[in-house]
């Protein structure tokens, strides 16, 4: 916002001193005044207004307080912001970024913990980006505006408490590549550490930031040297990141495995939630199972 | 806009007197829509369409009151009249509906997804309203106004009310135009609508206006008044126009009785406003010629089969 004074930002409860439900916008309203607006609880309208403003060449960022609520703006994303540029034969562009916290492990229950991004992966004309704790989220946000499409910018909520870390060096000939995004990147790094220490299985963690559309070429390049592939996602099993990776990687003929959440709503009980969602244990277990296949 | 891509001054009748121009534009829209329905009935055009027969006066009255260079129009599935009154691009609209390269969106959008300069339409009820608020916000600094068209059926969509609230809260320069033709596809309003539309808008703090006429000069006077008030820093406004739909919702899907339709004919804006001009026949002939030539031009354009662009 400091670099481009056309950018506006709005969302629910984002003004100082509160600074948003997860404090991501703390300090912004004080610093940028009228360029930061608090909004009513009207997700469809605030995304659509941002898309309309963006259509006039004015980059706009909207925060959706919980990723679970993106369903409320689905029509704006699917039938308007992403569709109009194409059906209008590219007479308009929509520099719009919809930021939203997804994910569980916080005990928030079934409607405040989901990873719903897969419902939007596959929408033509949309880019879905996901931050992780090994790359600079600010740089990714800047990149989002360089894209020529609206962006769904996914921030897994437990990452808000993390500092950006360096990804451990990968082995040259990994036994298993762990393909993952969001929170699952740090889970995979922990799983890779355990697998090397306890099982002498050497893994390469392959974090993906742009989860839709997936860059097939770079994914194939990253996985070339690995013997086996394990795809890890926090969302529920089925029609998701795992399936998309399988579609693009099937021709490599490598043994593949998949880790995802159990296909039921996220339970309130902490123990039950941990069991429903992917864990480091489950990644380790599934990685070992890949050796049984071959 | 590039120099080769301007409003069609000839088809807008810009050299005519105002009364002649408004009549001429209505007549042109009428010819366009009836020709289109004929083409569909002959299976000469593929897909679907929603004509604005009976609602022509609203379109021309409002576009006449706009500054077409800077103001924005958001229209819905019933958008041909709004579009033609905005820019006069007859051949480009025919070609768009026919999926041809000359089309205003190169045949990608079709009847209800059209865009040119600051005119936009989309076919999902209510979904265009937030976009209209967005363009209103973007244009406020340059003194531009956004007009967004709703139908009575659109009033069932929740996002409309989110937007009435935000338009008033943020004082956005937007005119909501409710073209209330009393029937949503085949469902009469009284089966799906409770209360009073104008009162709904007023409850959110918008200014409001009400018209129950097909008289184009009266509609234009109201449009000019509302738009200039908004442009000069007034509150956003909600204008409820009682209108008539003289054609089917889409193609041949009208379930209304002949008696009902005969009564609605009394409100036909083209016939009703004929007395405004001295030579309606001459203008009608002129419109027929434009339509014939535009259609030929559209038909001569290659079909967009997707081989040009991704």
From TrEMBL, chain B:
Leader peptide range in chain numbering: none
UniProt cofactor(s): thiamine diphosphate
Residue ranges annotated for the Dehydrogenase E1 component domain, each copy included: 25-297
Matching Gene3D superfamilies: 3.40.50.970
Entry's transmembrane regions: none
Record Pfam families: E1_dh
Keywords for this protein: Oxidoreductase, Pyruvate, Thiamine pyrophosphate
Keyword Transferase included in the entry's annotation: no
InterPro entries: DH_E1, PDH_E1_Alpha_Subunit, THDP-binding
SUPFAM superfamilies: Thiamin diphosphate-binding fold (THDP-binding)
Protein's name according to its UniProt entry: TPP-dependent pyruvate/acetoin dehydrogenase alpha subunit
Origin organism lineage: Bacteria, Pseudomonadati, Pseudomonadota, Gammaproteobacteria, Pseudomonadales
